[in-house]
Amino acid sequence: MQITTGRLIDHAETIEPLARLMQQQWPDWYRDPAKARGDLVSRLNDARLPLGLVAFANGRAAGACALTLSSGGLVTDRTPWVGGLLVDPGLRRKGLAAALLARATEEAQLLGHERLYALTATAHELFGSQGWQRIENIELDGQAHAIYCAELIGEISVKPLR
Length: 162
Known about the structure:
Number of domains: 1
Shape: globular
CATH architecture: 3-Layer(aba) Sandwich
CATH topology: Aminopeptidase
Radius of gyration: 15 Å
Structural class: alpha+beta
Oligomer: single chain
């Protein structure tokens, strides 16, 4: 399987399939399809947050995430965050989430950030396997979560998908 990533602004045609995927995977949050589309449209930015990213499997949109100012309603000085990390359930554990995280770290570095944060209740193995450091455990909405951090150092190797 060929995995590629790109900025959502360069692939606006993926908004509808990604909105459907968001609604299927997070029905409590996206009961209204317009809300999923609206969130994706708000990420159609090039050099500012929120910045949407999309992953492709053999040319088909199969996942997404965004660089955001905050996450989960947290009030913190930490920024930016990876939010809305989503992969088609039939394509999980094939490298799409890792590719999205790699692209997110590169984009955050291009925007001048030294660190990137993530909040998760379930994806501990993913973040750990990608070298992110677990820096804090918190409870959010009655559920245990962890905050992860990626230090953004080294060369930037973004190869835009066009």
